[in-house]
Each structure stands twice: as C-alpha cells, then as structure tokens.
Amino acid sequence: MADLIEVRVTTSVRAEADAICSRVVARRLAACAQVVAPISSTYRWGGEVQRAEEWFLLMKTTADRFGDLVSPDLES
Question: Which of 1, 47, 52, 64 has the most CB atoms within 10 Å of its CB?
Fold first, then answer.
C-alpha cells in the first residue's frame, strides 16, 4: 500500500483555494482536497511580525504523488 500523506497549504483568496482544490482532484494528484474556513495566521515577513486572514487547504494524497502536487505546472 502507498504511503498516505496530507499536504497543508494556505492562500489569501477563497477563489484561489477552491481552484487549487478542483485542479488537484481533477488531475488525480489528491484523492480529496478541503478548504477550511478562514484562519488567522501570524508570521514574520520583512523583519516584522504580520497577521493575515488566509484560507487553509488540506489535500490527501500519496507520497509518490507529492512531487507532482507541488509542481509549478499545477497553475496552468
């Protein structure tokens, strides 16, 4: 059996989160992709602590598909 993994990413726009989920499932790069309600993220950027609202994505896939899932070609 393949090693199952969960990939977690964020985006600042709900429409982008939905589009990513649709693409990865349609291309069979993930068996399931979920968009979680807005989250509040705190991070360091440009030497300062920042806060932003982001959309959290969970994608369920296999370890052997991870490289294709994170490929820059996913955007097209």
Answer: 52
- Amino acid (1-letter code) at residue 12: S
How far apart, in whole angstroms, are the C-alpha atoms of residue 47 and residue 44?
A: 6
Q: First CA to last CA across the chain, in angstroms?
A: 31
The residue extents of the domains of the chain are 4-75
* pTM assigned to the model: 0.84
pLDDT in single tens digits along all 76 residues of the chain: 679 999 999 999 999 999 999 999 999 999 999 999 899 999 999 999 999 999 999 999 999 999 999 886 766 5
Q: How far is CA 56 from CA 16, 33, 41, in A?
A: 11, 10, 10
